[in-house]
Known about the structure:
Elements lengths: L14 H10 L10 H8 L3 H13 L10
Helix pairs in contact: 2-3
The structure holds zinc ion.
Amino acid sequence: MKNDFCIRCGKRLSADEIGLHKKLFNRAAAEFMCIECCAAHFDVSVELLENKIEEFKKMGCTLFENKE
Ligand SMILES: [Zn+2]
């Protein structure tokens, strides 16, 4: 997987964080932010975004299924 580092802080990203970014910004995004930077960007808590990831997974969102 390419570009799997946060464009703001350089942290290595998990598949969940990449899926979250795609969901929040753009499915076709090629650059991603980690969950902390997404939270800062939207001025929400990391916990809220973690809950969102769980929600998306429960909804069966394919962005969160396949790593690589
Ligand atoms: Zn970051």
